[in-house]
Amino acid sequence: MADLFAWLISFFILIALLVIVIYQLMCLADLEFDYINPYDSSSRINKVILPEFITQGVLCCFYLITGHWVMSLFCAPYLYYNYRLYNQGKHLVDVTEIFNLLPREKKQRLIKLFYLVLLLFLSIFWMIYVSLDDHDA
Asked: pLDDT at position 136, please?
């Protein structure tokens, strides 16, 4: 039963990460179609970058603590990528360069989105598997 709660918690953490990445993509799309100015778009995206990185780190540590080693290994490349961006100082969106880097930023967030959807499907699979296994016992 505790394993089921662990998968439920990871499910909600992944949903939160998906919401953050989709919000960033929406800000970039609004900027691309001139619904928002570059300063507002950059400030909105930069406000959620650090919470995204922290939430991803918490999720990876949560998988380690609960003993889900394979899921932790699946989270590791994304966590390393975020760590590398943060160490290089490339994690924040620059107001003056946002139009030049718009395709790159959108591509980066789309890759994150697909990666998180994959993790979400794996989490749902294991949550269903555990719930059916607990039900049979």
From this structure: 60
pLDDT in tens, 51-90: 999 999 999 999 999 999 999 999 999 999 999 999 999 9
Residue 35 DSSP symbol: S
DSSP state, residue 114: H
* SS3 category, 56: helix
pTM, entire model:
0.93
Give phi and psi for 36, each to the nearest 5: -145, 150
Which single residue is written with the structure tokens 């039963």?
1
Whether 136 contacts 37, CB under 8 Å: no
List of residues 6+ apart from 106 with CB closer than 8 A? 25, 28, 29, 32
Which amino acid makes up residue 26? M
Residue 68 contacts residue 60 (beta carbons within 8 Å): no
